[in-house]
Design brief:
mainly alpha; 2 helices; membrane; transmembrane; transmembrane helix
Length: 53
C-alpha cells in the first residue's frame, strides 16, 4: 500500500538521527559500541530486506 511505502523510507531516514543521538547520550565504552554494532547490523539488514521486497 502507498502508506507503507511512505512509512518505510521515513523510518529509514530517521534511524541514523536516532542512532547518532543515542551514541551521544550513551557513554562511549567499547563494550557498548560492540553491542550497538551488532544490533545496528541486524536492524539495517532487516530494513534493507524490507525495502528490497
Amino acid at each position: 500500500t502507498p502508506s507503507d511505502a511512505t512509512i518505510k523510507p521515513t523510518s529509514f531516514t530517521f534511524s541514523p538521527i536516532i542512532i547518532f543521538s543515542l551514541y551521544s547520550v550513551i557513554p562511549c565504552s567499547k563494550h557498548l559500541l560492540k553491542i550497538w554494532s551488532l544490533i545496528l547490523n541486524q536492524v539495517f539488514q532487516l530494513t534493507h530486506n524490507e525495502i528490497k521486497t
